[in-house]
């Protein structure tokens, strides 16, 4: 018996298209297997609909809108209406006491004289812009996270197929060598090596199956669906998207949602500081009062105009101004630090992505074709008796390791690509 089966089958494994590598051999049956396969677009939609953090931020829009509506009013203070009715008893000499009914009504309005209402509008508008940008950033981070989780599941699905095939091949080899040893054609060492490779393949398959189950669990949690309801994942791992120049990512990163949110918060805090500074100026209250008083036969009609102005002698709003100043300074620091961190992150991820792209291309264009050729040559040499069983196993092990390396490189490539898009704010386009 010759060991050509191992070499040929491994060559088939190396050339197996990625699109065919979605079966989950030896995994527990999935009740969702009858459902439509889950692709990237569908996963994004499910995550956005179910994510509690995103839903919470969307719910905050009501509070922000309320602040905007309140700030949009003509005046900040409500008018005050006062009504007064007085029963007055007037003593009279030699006659019963005289009872008089008197009444009065007044309307007063407090006016801000330092432009506070305009500053409130500016602060509320900037706060709304910050929340919208924060929602966009949360959505972008969620999209990146779900994409990375989905592609990890894809990779592990293919790893399960690969390890299943490796187990089948090495198990068949161990059986064949044991028969040859019994016939005196192979040594006990050859048989022992083949058994070890078979058991290693079995352990490798079990490990990858566990990793796949964990990855599916993480994806199901992100989508807020039961693990049993998670369909089979589909997608194309082999497609390498051309990477735009670094300068393009750096230019776009300045407009990413997180930086826009921080810039808007900075503007909001600046308006709040100006508002607190303007609050040092006293508010003017103007009132108009009308009433009637005196005896019924000679009632007097009174009209009174009042003007009140607090004297800012003791309370100058220093505490609120100090707090607003500190909050503005912190907002400026956060914005500046995030801007620099974003630039550094984009550069690092871009360089990593470029390196991973080159690694994937080397594996696809050089390493795997060379190993496929080695498989053919080892088969030929083994038939000619030029190499032994151990040499054949080594060649096949190299071929399987290269396939694993390619899947790992593809996984890291797609993970880095989505991370770069999130860092530059381009993943929502």
Detailed description of the structure:
With 429 residues, the protein is of the alpha+beta class. It has one domain: Outer membrane efflux proteins (OEP) (Up-down Bundle). The chain contains ten helices and four strands, in the order ααααββααααββαα. Strands 1-2-3-4 form a four-stranded antiparallel sheet, with no helix packed on it. The longest helix has 67 residues, at 116-182. The chain is elongated, with a radius of gyration of 39 Å. The model is unreliable at 1-34 (pLDDT under 50).
Helices and strands, in N-to-C order?
A: HHHHEEHHHHEEHH
Number of H- or I-type helical stretches: 10
The order of strands across the largest sheet is: 1-2-3-4
Q: Which class in CATH terms?
A: Mainly Alpha
Summary, kept brief:
This protein has 429 residues and is of the alpha+beta class.
Key structural traits:
four-stranded antiparallel sheet, disordered N terminus, elongated, 429 residues
Topology (SSEs and partners):
Elements: H1 4-14, H2 40-50, H3 52-59, H4 61-71, E1 80-92, E2 95-111, H5 116-182, H6 188-223, H7 246-253, H8 257-278, E3 284-293, E4 300-308, H9 318-383, H10 389-424
Antiparallel strand pairs: 1-2, 2-3, 3-4
Helix pairs in contact: 1-5, 1-9, 1-10, 2-5, 3-5, 4-5, 5-6, 5-8, 5-10, 7-9, 7-10, 8-9, 9-10
């Amino acid at each position: 018996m010759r060991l050509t089966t191992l070499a040929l089958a491994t060559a088939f494994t190396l050339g197996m298209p990625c699109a065919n590598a979605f079966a989950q051999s030896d995994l527990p049956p999935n009740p969702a297997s009858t459902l439509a396969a889950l692709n990237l677009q569908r996963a994004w939609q499910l995550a956005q609909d179910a994510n509690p953090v995103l839903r919470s931020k969307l719910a905050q829009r009501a509070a922000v809108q309320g602040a905007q509506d309140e700030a949009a009013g003509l005046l900040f203070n409500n008018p005050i209406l006062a009504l007064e009715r007085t029963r007055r008893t007037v003593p009279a000499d030699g006659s019963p006491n005289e009872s008089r009914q008197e009444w009065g009504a007044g309307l007063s309005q407090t006016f801000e004289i330092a432009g506070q209402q305009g500053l409130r509008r500016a602060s509320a508008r900037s706060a709304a812009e910050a929340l919208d940008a924060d929602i966009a950033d949360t959505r972008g981070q969620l999209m990146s996270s779900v994409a990375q989780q989905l592609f990890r599941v894809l990779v592990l699905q293919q790893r399960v197929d690969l390890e299943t095939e490796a187990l089948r091949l090495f198990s068949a080899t161990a059986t064949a060598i044991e028969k040859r040893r019994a016939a005196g054609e192979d040594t006990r060492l050859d048989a022992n090596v083949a058994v070890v490779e078979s058991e290693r393949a079995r352990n490798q398959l079990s490990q990858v199956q566990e990793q796949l189950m964990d990855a599916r669990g993480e994806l199901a949690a992100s989508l807020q669906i039961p693990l049993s309801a998670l369909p089979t994942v589909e997608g194309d791992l082999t497609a390498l998207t051309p990477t735009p120049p670094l300068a393009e990512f750096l230019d776009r990163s300045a407009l990413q949602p997180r930086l826009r949110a921080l810039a808007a918060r900075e503007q909001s805090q600046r308006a709040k500081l100006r508002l607190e500074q303007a609050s040092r100026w006293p508010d003017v209250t103007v009132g108009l009062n009308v009433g009637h008083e005196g005896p019924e036969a000679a009632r007097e009609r009174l009209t009174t105009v009042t003007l009140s102005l607090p004297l800012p002698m003791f309370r100058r709003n220093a505490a609120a101004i100090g707090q607003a100043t500190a909050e503005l300074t912190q907002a400026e620091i956060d914005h500046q630090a995030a801007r620099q961190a974003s630039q550094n992150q984009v550069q690092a991820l871009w360089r990593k992505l470029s390196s991973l792209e080159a690694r994937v291309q080397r594996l696809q264009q050089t390493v795997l074709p060379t190993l496929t050729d080695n498989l053919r040559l080892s088969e030929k040499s083994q038939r000619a008796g030029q190499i032994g069983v151990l040499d054949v196993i080594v060649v096949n092990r190299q071929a399987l390791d290269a396939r694993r390396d390619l899947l790992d490189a593809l996984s890291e490539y797609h993970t880095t690509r989505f991370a770069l898009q999130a860092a530059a704010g381009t993943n929502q386009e």
